[in-house]
Design brief:
By secondary structure, this protein is mostly helical. The protein is built from 25 helices and 6 strands. The strands form 2 sheets. A 3-stranded antiparallel sheet has the order 1-2-3. A 3-stranded antiparallel sheet has the order 4-5-6. A hairpin with a 2-residue loop joins strand 1 and strand 2. It is elongated, with a radius of gyration of 33 Å.
Length: about 550
Amino acid sequence: MAKHLLLKTGRFYFRRRIPKRLHLQLGSSDLVVALPACSQRMAVQMARKASARFDLILLTDMTDKSIDRAKLHQIIRKEFELYLKEHDWKNRHEFDEERDERNEKLLEGGRELLRYKSWQDAAVNVDLALRDEELELEFGSPEYKELAMGFLRANVEAMRISAARFRGDYTAKPEDPLFLGRYVEPELETLSVADACEQYITDRIAKRGWRKDQQKEARNTLKLFQEYVGDARLASIDKRKVNGFSDLVHLLPVMRGKSNELRGLNTSQLVELVKKGEIQAIGPTTVGKHMRNLNAFFEWALRRAEIPANPCVGVYEPQRATHKKSDEVNGWSDEQLRILFSCPIYHGRKSEGRRFTAGTMRIKDDWYWMPLFLAFHPIRPEEIAQIQVADIFMKEGVQGFQIEGGVTADEIDLTGKKVKNVLARRFIPIHHLLLELGLEQILSAKKRTPDERFFSSFKAQGHAQRYSQYFCRFFNEQIKGLGISGVSTYGLRHTSITALAQNCHDVTLRRHLQGHAQGVQDDRYIKGVSVTAAKAAIDSIQYPGIDADFIRGA
């Protein structure tokens, strides 16, 4: 990357420091100008031209601080070491004649700059080096020209040595008197960010530790990160670059990747739309996912000794909660439940497909049973949507269903089902209300196909392949037409948990039925709960005015 050229949020910017004497007048310490959308090569050329014009404008304002020759040589030799590392990185791949010829042409071009004393070509690098050293020289002064010519010499000598190393000659040493004794050992080859990302993904997939949805989210994050840092070495990524990526992520739009209108836009264009307020940015939860994915990638690289430290540590701080956990999802009120269980799904619909339009047709299909399972059992939508007919059986004389599934990718492939964690695997007695409404008759008809899912009309959808996805999305939209607002499908789980807590005072039993952790020691020693006690707890879930007769419309 050329000096005075910045890449931020996918766009190139020209940046130059303004002399201190002009800070008050201009109200800034730096001049930052956004360059038109272009390639890096064009951006470098534009930055050089802008830098030259900027130097002419500020020529009279530059403060000349005399620097002795020893200091000049020290700066030049430091630059030589940086040039050599940069060229070695470019020559890191296996030998090929095309690259070798390109090295020779670049070397000859560098020598030509020296022959014609084109010191201005090094001005960009000189200015940045002076800024790093907190020094100032008048542009075009004898000291400035000597420093610039020294940079050209450093670049030529670095290119010559690196080209020799590329051909396998590691005996090449500096010949320019200015750099005698300044031999720099070639660095061990390090992965590029792109290569590291591919190895990371391959490694994680091979270990079967990823679900498909997690894999897709990680790929999305790493693709964004590669776009942001470009062809950079993994070892060169520091906290500043991670901070810049975090700033970029905060400005990504909500519907990126889902909206057809946004899919054709690059990251820079999307960020500009967010900045203008034309589209909404993603929330802190999604930002956190991106940063956790990136942190996991660098933790992997750290374990493989590809980097000395994880640059993500201490960069991203999640927003502190401003509300209670219980406020994140609203529970349903008794009145909203009465509206739901007296809607056309239960009291007569127009047709099989027009479930929320009043009519005379009564069908006890998947849409009839799903809200009942969620409202009267402390379960998650996906847990019940994926159960098979064989998962519903009698245990110790109690009719219930076993929530089962995998946590790892291997387990998910084996069972065809997934659960949030190992604690989610549990037996739930069926509420007496569902049995009164005829669930046993439905089960009897389905017993002939035990390997089929009970909710057979629900198909796996989305990159997470969730069976409950379509139901939840469509249900959330349709209940608005019933006059129900401020709640969602998942809110039914919260409602049932609240109703359970009001009538069941056994905390251990409640946590088991909810699929929640008991606590470190309890999880170690508690091996199970009484099925009879679990049945009594489930049956204690009651809502005023809602019984089997109410739901039948009797």
